[in-house]
Amino acid sequence: MTFVTRFAPSPTGYLHIGGARTAMFNWLFARHHGGRFRLRIEDTDRKRSTPEAIEAIIEGMRWLELDWDDEVVYQSNKSKRHAEIAHELLKRGAAYNCYATPEELEKMREEARAEGRHASYDGRWRDRNLAEAPPGISPAVRLKTPQEGETILNDLVQGEVRVANEELDDMVLLRSDGTPTYMLSVVVDDHDMEITHAIRGDDHLTNAVRQAQIYQALDWKLPEFAHIPLIHGPDGAKLSKRHGALGIGAYREMGYLPEAMRNYLLRLGWSHGDDEIISTQQAIEWFGLETVGKSPARFDFQKLENLNGIYIREADDHRLVDMVTAGLINATGRELNQIHLDRLKLAMPGLKERAKTIPELVENARFCVETRPLDLDTKAQKLIDDEARIRLALLRSCLDTIDDWIESTLDETLRAFAASEGIKLGKIAQPLRAALTGRTVSPGIFDVLLVLGREESLARISDIGSTL
RNA sequence: GUCCCCUUCGUCUAGUGGUCUAGGACAUCGCCCUCUCACGGCGAAAACAGGGGUUCGAGUCCCCUAGGGGAUGCCA
After folding, report:
1. I want to staple A49 with a disulfide (CB 3.0 to 4.6 A). Which of A7, A43, A245, A282 is the partner?
2. How far apart are CA A93 and CA A373, in angstroms?
């Protein structure tokens, strides 16, 4: 039997971080078992569902490289089928028409709360004769749920969950306008799509119990359920916009790599011993629901950033150059020429060691595309005092004599120069760095010299001297 | 209110009755490496929510309390 999982977001907003993790766990589970992973858009709430949200979700999934199988299912297209099922239940006497008004319902809720009861609807139309139906009111259809005993669920993550049936009132299957409710739609769709494993957020755990009652009424086989803990904000409360409830697209814009994001999300609630850096390939091999934790995890930007740094270091230079190029054009408003691109390519190995995000990488790469004369930042300016200027002028003539502009020669020259001046290498390397990059922080100084090339390097040094 | 779920360093977690003087990772703080910043290396500090049981023995099993979260819709 092949396993089929699904990710079933409602398109009322962007794909948030919790949804992304849910999607990934479903994806990982399916890929691990050689099964299928499906995508279903739960757009039955036409008022709140938007095409933009659908687009954002699909974009987010693509960015995270979570590919789904088969065509996307739109739940709104299935409402006829859902209604049919409800009517079948009605015919079999497993469901009934309910004519209670919103006011009545509200009153029942208040009373239930006041009396400390969990279930609110009192089942007043459960056994009433249809002849008593008030005219002119179209009824909702409710499921006749068992009133005694308990409903038991064996959740793959949460274990056994049992709820007394008297705690559960008769849920609405079809609204009075004839449209199906979420509770019904999910059950029918999961059944029709032959979902074997429903992996979703913990907030659905109580729903699962109710859905189990629908399955029972229909005499359908239940899928396996796995309710994974929610992701909380740094303060332990529900993820809000202030924290990380940003759309996945926001993380992309903040300069995080999809593979870093996946690794981070994976370790939030799932573990494989002490392993931290886990490739997607490895994750597919290792993933299982047994090792999913039961408690909610807090979102931690620092760890994400650390992981991102690791993945940037591992990333292919060409890919990074492309990303940085785009960022640089954006930041400077100028197109880059071939010389710039060559420099970026040459600088990338040194650059990527020093960045945790793409914007940081872009910032550090600026010296490659800066036009002369450079604007030195405040710290860099401080390094250029009169003594430094004199030394730079001297150094320039030394460098000028170099025939082969390669690292070993540059290294020798610079060290020899420092020795002849009776100073440490750092004493000359820092002003030189300021002259070449306009900053006090950069890749190794020989790297910079190499990246910029002889001509540009000498010119930038001269620029500093000429400001004497 | 009621129902359900959860609870190991600040954070993510390992841990499935003895190997736990509780391990790893991020963050923090030292030191080393060093041309700056990173990387890397070494080291420090840092946790079993509390209380009862069960057991020769409990972070691991049971109960209670507290705290947190979720649900309680003709939303999904």
Report:
1. A43
2. 85
User: Does residue A259 lie within 7 Å of nucleic acid chain B, judged by its CB?
Assistant: no
Residue showing tokens 């609405």? A172
Which protein residue has its CA closest to C1' of B75? A45
C-alpha to C-alpha distances, A211 to A55, A102, A120, A181, A326, nearest whole angstrom = 29, 23, 18, 12, 48
Q: Which residue is nearest to nucleotide B8 (CA to C1')?
A: A295
Specify the nucleotide whose C1' lies closest to residue A203 (CA): B70
Q: How many CB atoms lie within 10 A of CB A293?
A: 13
Separation of A338 CA and B2 C1' (Å)? 69
What ipTM describes this predicted complex? 0.93
pTM of the entire predicted model: 0.92
The backbone torsions φ and ψ at residue A369, rounded to the nearest 5 degrees and listed phi first, read -120, 5
Which residue among the candidates A78, A144, A221, A241 is catalytic per the annotation? A241
Residue A303 falls in the annotated catalytic set: no
pLDDT at residue number A468:
46
**N residues, chain A:** 468
- pLDDT tens figures, A131-141: 777 778 889 99
Strand B close to A426 by CB, under 7 A: yes
CA distance A57 to A42: 12
Share of chain A above pLDDT 90, in %: 70
Structure tokens at A147: 């009133």
β-pairing, A95-98 with A140-143?
antiparallel
The nucleotide whose C1' lies nearest the CA of A170 is B74
Query: How far apart (Å, rounded) are the C-alpha atoms in residues A411 and A220?
Result: 75
Closest CA to A223 of A248, A255, A193: A193
CA A431 to chain centroid, in Å, comes to 42
